[in-house]
Automatic annotation (TrEMBL):
It holds the Pfam family PHO4. One of its GO terms (molecular function) is phosphate transmembrane transporter activity. The chain crosses the membrane at residues 13-33, 54-72, 92-111, 123-141, 161-183, 195-216, 236-256, 263-281, 325-348, 472-493, 499-520. Its main location: membrane. InterPro entries: Phos_transporter, PhoU-like_sf. It comes from Salegentibacter salegens. It is a multi-pass membrane protein. GO terms for cellular component: membrane. It comes from the Bacteria. Keywords: Membrane, Phosphate transport, Transmembrane, Transmembrane helix, Transport. It is found in: Membrane. This is Phosphate transporter.
Length: 759
């Protein structure tokens, strides 16, 4: 049989493909919801309006209602991007399979990176890419006139998507910044008292905006809502807005005055439910729209009795509702994902960290572009500030002063931002999405909610000179990722479609295996990162307030670093003996993790000192010196691993047998020392510290003996300058490593003895 197109004559084959598409749909639901969770969880999680459990319950209700009562009209997948009447059934199935494979891989990649992206943009550009690919193949097989591409693609819709992306990014950021700025001017950071007077108006406007958003974006996708109702809402929107404003303002006043309710919490709770409802009702098409369209295509083809390569899918352009059981199942998968997906938490954390008010470790590193933007922004801000009268400027600045309250170190971490900003995030996002829907603009909820959050954080002066370059770099990374999503989605689906078209069943099997491999690998990698993250959180604690807690925390830090160093040292000596370049490179890279851990600890010194009670402040000097010794130990380890790698990488001669043997002797003694130290600090058996210190001179003498041996070798048999350089370097850094380690033990011993006398 000639290989021309995608010939499947057996109905069972297409049934298998259909089953495969639904399996991919379940996977896509998981990875898609994990990415889109930031849309409705960000504000509630960041402000800690209620407990995390309550937030998840509220979001779950919104998602469940939105999914289960969705009308299930999956229009975009069937006719939104391409014209189905121009494609045969076999071509349609190729397009849908290519789209689902690409979407699962793409969204899972972004989830693993902890970056939010748009599921709307990904699915649309995947449909566009796959359809363009098959269209070009059809054209080259017939007319070779590429201008006929417009006959297959809905060019107008594709153009609207691109325009909507660019428009949404700018408008959402500016709107969020402007509304937050004036909200803060009115309420300030000390908003509790002012809410008694302005809370009713703020609550009325906010709840009315969210209510209108539910009407426009939530209920319109519900199956039980008639078209007549939707038309009435659109025709009477002015009256609805006015009456809802009055009604919710009165309700807010009653709640504040008589029931002493914090109206901001109500806004956040209702807003979270509204966004979750709209997300499930409107974005469900992004996850199951393609498999549903494939199922409908299969039913049309099965009933036709026409060959798969001859049936044009004109009937696919109609409106066919999705069965209720599928919507219920999809809603269940989405709810479970919200509760149990670690990747969803990672994506939400990215949004929260980029918008948080307080300082802390930054997710993204500074870039040239972020530095340039911040530098010129500071210059521009200074110029504007000079124009504003001093008294007026002072009055404005007073509204942005954050309360300077010292909390107990035992309290939970403070919210990333306050309820005012969380409310503005939800209200502005709701208004913008409602307006976009009325104007029939293809908006991405991810783009709108994320950029609103970034705009409000900028207006709230969360991006100060301490953090601005990192926050700007993070925003640029996320925005860049959005455009990468569009490009990769288009290109990936186009390539997959072509591969399936020409490769048939074998190509499908290979692509499915590749997809499964990457999903499993990314899942395992994420689990590993999550485990490492939990370990690093131990390093980042700032809640130490007593001498005992300092002792315990220092013990944990010492044990962890010692454990890392002993592994790296042994592996370096072993791999150097085998001249194993790959393992030496990997080992050298691993030392970078140790350096980052120490850097994180040093970055936390400010918060550590601030958290100490008055009786423990003197212990900060001990902690600073302890970190300095840990830094010296890691630096010595870095020198040993880097120089060993460079020596082998430059193809220099192997170290001689006697040299490797001597290094192994040192390694053996160091392993015994490190094992004893680790046991001491893990078990808090600090009486053993004197015994450890007694071994100091013995170890140093051993290294000195090795140095003398090498000097004799040079005088008699050594003939390699590079070997000599490396060997001396390893011995001297080993000596420094031993000295730094035992100096640290001495420091801890002195601190421990002094602490015992003061307790």
């Amino acid at each position: 049989m000639p290989v021309k197109g995608f010939y499947f004559y057996m109905q069972d084959v297409y049934l298998i493909i259909l089953v495969l598409l639904f399996i991919l749909a379940i996977t896509d639901l998981v990875v898609g919801v994990s990415n889109d969770a930031i849309n409705f969880l960000n504000s509630a999680v960041g402000s800690k309006a209620v407990s995390l459990r309550s937030i998840l319950i509220i979001a779950s209700l919104g998602v469940a209602v939105g999914a289960i009562f969705s009308s299930g009209l999956m229009e975009v997948a069937r006719k939104g991007i391409f014209l189905p009447q121009e494609f045969y059934f076999e071509e349609i199935m190729i397009i849908f399979l290519a789209v689902m494979l690409t979407d699962v891989l793409l969204l899972d990649f972004f989830n693993s990176m902890g970056l939010p992206t748009s599921t709307t943009v990904s699915i649309m550009f995947e449909l566009l890419g796959a359809a363009v690919s098959i269209s070009l193949i059809k054209i080259f097989n017939t007319t070779n006139d590429i201008s006929h591409l417009a006959n297959f693609i809905n060019v107008e819709k594709a153009s609207e998507v691109i325009f909507g992306i660019l428009l949404a990014i700018g408008i959402a950021f500016i709107a969020g910044a402007v509304v937050q700025y004036f909200s803060r001017l009115v309420l300030s950071f000390k908003y509790e008292k002012r809410l008694k007077y302005t809370g009713a108006i703020f609550g009325g406007v906010s709840l009315a905006a969210i209510f209108y958003f539910i009407l426009i974006n939530g209920l319109k996708s519900m199956a039980f809502v008639s078209n007549h109702f939707v038309e009435n809402v659109n025709d009477n929107r002015i009256q609805i807005i006015i009456f809802s404003l009055l009604g919710f303002t009165i309700l807010s006043k009653v709640l504040i005055s008589f029931f002493k309710v914090n109206i901001l919490k109500i806004i956040v709770i209702v807003g979270t439910f509204a966004l979750a409802l709209a997300f499930a009702g409107n974005d469900l098409v992004n996850f199951i729209g393609v498999p549903i369209a494939a199922w409908q295509s299969y039913e049309i083809w099965s009933a036709s009795g026409v060959a798969a390569s001859e049936l044009l899918m004109s009937d696919l352009a109609g409106s066919v509702p999705t069965p209720e059981i599928i919507l219920i199942f999809a809603g269940g998968v989405m709810v479970l994902t919200i509760w149990f997906s670690g990747k969803a938490q990672a994506v939400v954390d990215t949004g929260v960290k980029l918008s948080r008010q307080n300082e802390g470790s930054e997710r993204f590193g500074a870039t040239y572009l972020s530095r340039t933007i911040v530098r010129y922004s500071i210059i521009f801000g200074a110029a504007v500030s000079d124009v504003i009268p001093k008294n007026f400027r002072k009055k404005i600045n007073s509204q942005f002063e954050t309360p300077n309250t010292k909390t107990s170190g035992r309290e939970i971490a403070p919210p990333a931002f306050d309820l005012v900003r969380a409310s503005v995030n939800l209200v502005v996002a709701s208004i913008l999405i409602s307006m976009g829907t009325n104007l029939q603009l293809p908006l991405s909820t991810t783009y709108v909610t994320f950029m609103v959050a970034m705009g409000t954080s900028l207006a709230d002066r969360a991006w100060n000179q301490e953090s601005a370059v990192y926050r700007v770099a993070g925003v640029l990374n996320v925005i860049g990722g959005w455009f990468v999503t569009a490009f990769v989605a288009f290109l990936g689906a186009a390539v997959f479609a072509a591969i399936i078209y020409f490769g048939g069943l074998i190509a499908i099997a290979i692509l499915v295996c590749i997809t499964a491999f990457f999903i499993v690998r990314n899942t395992l990698s994420h689990a590993k990162k999550a485990k490492a993250g939990k370990r690093q959180k131990r390093y980042k604690r700032t809640d130490i307030i007593t001498i005992n807690e300092i002792t315990v925390e220092s013990s944990v830090n010492i044990s962890q670093v010692i454990s890392g160093i002993r592994k790296r040292y042994t592996k370096t000596v072993d791999n150097l003996g085998y001249h194993d370049l790959g393992k030496l490179k990997k080992n050298n890279k691993k030392v970078g993790e140790l350096e980052k851990e120490i850097d994180d600890l040093k970055g936390n010194i400010y918060y550590f000192i601030k958290s100490l009670d008055e009786d423990s402040v003197a212990a900060s000097r001990f902690y600073i010196h302890l970190l300095d010794y840990l830094q010296e130990m890691v630096n010595s380890t870095r020198y040993i691993t880097r120089n060993s790698f460079e020596h082998v990488n430059n193809n220099h001669k192997n170290l001689k047998f006697n040299q490797i043997r001597d290094l192994k002797k040192i390694d053996k003694k160091l392993q015994e020392l490190f094992e004893e130290i680790k046991y001491t600090f893990d078990e808090h058996d600090f009486e053993r510290l004197d015994d450890i210190l007694a071994e100091k001179q013995q170890l140093l003498d051993m290294v000195s003996e090795m140095i003398e041996k090498q000097i004799k070798r040079i005088r008699t048999s050594e003939s390699s300058p590079k070997n000599t350089k490396l060997y001396f370097g390893l011995l001297l850094e080993s000596k420094d490593l031993i000295s730094s380690t035992l100096n640290l033990i001495q420091l801890f011993r002195e601190f421990y003895v002094e602490a015992k006398t003061t307790l």
